[in-house]
TrEMBL record:
Protein name in UniProt: M23 family metallopeptidase
Domain (M23ase beta-sheet core): residue spans on this chain: 225-323
Organism: Cohnella terricola
Superkingdom: Bacteria
UniProt-recorded Gene Ontology molecular function terms: metalloendopeptidase activity
InterPro entries in the cross-refs: Cell_wall_metabolism_enzyme, Dup_hybrid_motif, M23ase_b-sheet_dom
Length: 359
């Protein structure tokens, strides 16, 4: 039976914070989100996916913008709307996640903020357009919203480069451009919208142990909190992607050691640290699927490149949510338990759940 000195966990607490740009105090506001995690979100339901597909096809047909680019814009908008429900309210029955403010829609100087006349909106330099063919530019209509954004983004042209310039001109935010391009790549690669599956980061049949260590007695005022979950396992146990995503960062970090960061379509950044190594085939910008091996458990970190063995081998796993201009961590523990449960359920019912505890 292996025994680990739990007091040594303190070292790990330095990782998440130092490795990412986070507004530490703001995490409180998002803390409750963990309970409603990614897998539970509505966007996995087949009829909703079907409605979206139809909407993207219609807008694509009218604008010439490829469907995966339209889907990417819509999904990016949805993630930001979800992160800011008060300032970006979305209709209950909306198919699109696009939000456009009334003044941007109708034009800053337009005295009628509810204007639906495409001509007067154009006169006041609003971006609202009629995408449905009823001669009204209606902010309450999915086609009109998505069509209006697509027209703005297409002003430069429709090549990949034009598209990214168009995105920059629309959002004036390089992070937004990067996200939409990542999402577009994912949709194009898989050629479908339903990419919500998840996996537990270690093979459920392997030996591992974890518990909730979120914010573990690290104190607040200027001190670090533990932004993630430590999954203890032997060195060399495969580490797998938990989601469909794009590899955003891969390499050495003084705190996280060999670490890899993967962006998913919920605009979550999945962070895997202390690896003993990476799967050689995986490069930054690559696309990964749930359950795909990306590296192996190790104890790298806390020093110069290659440093290892300063703490027991474990996977530090964190999730950060992009909110447009900043991103911060939320507790991944409930999601980890859910993914573990779901994967075990999908495996043979005879198999004993959970592996053998190692502490
Ligand atoms: Zn940790």
């Amino acid at each position: 039976m292996l025994r680990y000195d739990w007091r040594r966990w303190g070292r790990c607490a330095r990782i998440g914070t130092a490795a990412t740009v986070i507004l530490m105090l703001l995490w409180i506001g998002d803390h409750g989100f963990a309970a409603s995690g990614a897998a539970k979100e509505k966007n996995g339901e087949p009829d909703e996916i079907e409605q979206r597909r139809r909407l993207y096809e219609a807008v694509s047909l009218r604008t010439g913008l490829e469907w995966h680019n339209i889907a990417a814009i819509d999904q990016y908008e949805r993630t930001i709307s979800k992160a800011h429900p008060k300032t970006r309210p979305i209709r209950q029955d909306a198919v699109t996640g696009v939000y456009i403010s009334d003044s941007r829609w109708s034009g800053d100087l337009n005295p009628n903020k509810d204007d639906t006349d495409p001509l007067s909106i154009q006169f006041f330099r609003g971006i609202g357009k009629d995408g449905s063919g009823d001669r009204k530019a209606d902010r309450g209509k999915d086609e009109d919203l998505l069509y209006s954004v697509a027209v703005q983004v297409l002003q430069r042209g429709s090549s990949d480069e034009d598209f990214s310039i168009g995105l920059w001109e629309y959002y004036r935010n390089t992070r937004a451009v990067q996200r939409v391009m990542q999402f577009s790549k994912l949709y194009k690669h898989f050629n479908r919208l339903d990419l919500n599956g998840h996996a537990f980061p270690l093979p459920p049949s392997s030996n591992y142990s974890f518990r909730s260590t979120w914010g573990n007695s690290r104190g607040w005022g200027g001190k670090r909190i533990h932004e993630g979950t430590d999954i203890f396992a032997h060195s060399g146990v495969p580490v797998r992607s938990t989601c469909y995503g794009v590899v955003e960062i891969k390499g050495w970090n003084a705190y996280g050691g060999w670490r890899i960061g993967i962006r998913d379509l919920n605009n979550f950044y999945h962070y895997y640290a202390h690896l003993s190594g990476f799967d050689k085939k995986i490069k930054t910008g690559d696309i990964v699927s749930p359950g795909q091996v990306i590296g192996w458990v190790g104890s790298s970190g806390y020093g110069r490149p290659g440093t290892q063995g300063k703490f027991p081998p474990h996977l530090h796993y964190g999730i950060y949510r992009d909110r447009g201009l900043v991103e911060w961590a939320f507790d991944p523990y409930p999601l980890l338990r859910r993914w573990e449960r779901e994967e075990l359920k999908a495996m043979s019912p005879k198999r004993k759940p959970g592996g053998t505890p190692i502490h």
